[in-house]
Specification:
single chain, 233 residues, alpha+beta, four-stranded mixed β-sheet, 12 strands
């Protein structure tokens, strides 16, 4: 297997099945971050991830980390916290602030470059990328963003500036998403944080099968409109 160099003249991708095993899932490099190419990537189970100064790298890891919304794990301490939560949660109220928060709140550095920020802003303006915001009074304290594929949501990144803020974002969103017919949240690569919330690994071929089915399903037309999802009791 060899790494594929993408052309700027076509948005086609190679099959995820030819991705490298080491590093796991690296499929291609180059191309651009145009909306058409990004959407083609997500439709095929591929996403961009690269460091500042590197060429654009495209990935489709095997196994794939996913979260079934109905299997979100809420610890007893988180359940107690959420019951008296001080947070208000909204959908698509502050996409720019959320992606900036995800870029800034990384002690180890960030892959969310200015080019990535601009590219996902374009996807948001086109109605494909969405954000969940967590507020304490009028201060943004956490959130997450990702890309919708029908009844599947591809989570990209989250951040937290207060206790349990990112967990609150995912908890509230997963419940809202599930009630509306959402079936699967893509977490890409398993980490301790997402694993603690119930994310599991499945074979890439299974993920691609789910993606092929779920991206054809639609949520109700008003689902992604800006709205409040949760407010303190």
């Amino acid at each position: 297997m060899r790494l594929v160099q993408l052309s700027r003249h076509t948005i086609a991708f190679p099959s995820p099945e030819v991705a490298l095993r080491e590093p796991n899932g690296l499929l291609a490099l180059g191309g651009d971050l145009s909306p058409a190419r990004l959407l083609m990537a997500y439709q095929r189970g591929i996403f961009p991830w690269f460091s500042p100064g590197d060429p654009i790298l495209w990935w489709s890891p095997d196994p794939r980390a996913v979260l079934w919304p109905g299997e979100f794990h809420v610890s007893r301490s988180m359940r107690r916290f959420h019951k008296s939560s001080p947070y208000r949660v909204t959908l698509n109220h502050a996409f720019g602030q959320v992606i900036d928060g995800c870029a800034e709140d990384r002690h180890e550095g960030t892959w969310i470059t200015q080019d990535i920020v601009l590219a996902y802003h374009r996807l948001h303006e086109l109605g494909h990328a969405h954000s969940v915001e967590v507020w304490c009074d009028d201060t943004l304290v956490g959130g997450m963003y990702g890309v919708a594929q029908g009844a599947l949501f591809c989570g990209e990144s989250m951040f937290s500036r207060r206790e349990n803020a990112s967990k609150t974002a995912l908890l509230v969103f997963s419940e809202f998403f599930s009630r509306a017919g959402g079936r699967l949240i893509d977490c890409q690569v398993l980490n301790p944080h997402t694993a603690s919330l119930g994310a599991v690994e499945i074979p890439r071929r299974d993920y691609l099968e789910h993606l092929g089915l779920l991206r054809q399903q639609s949520l109700h037309s008003h689902f992604w409109l800006p709205q409040e999802l949760f407010s303190p009791a």
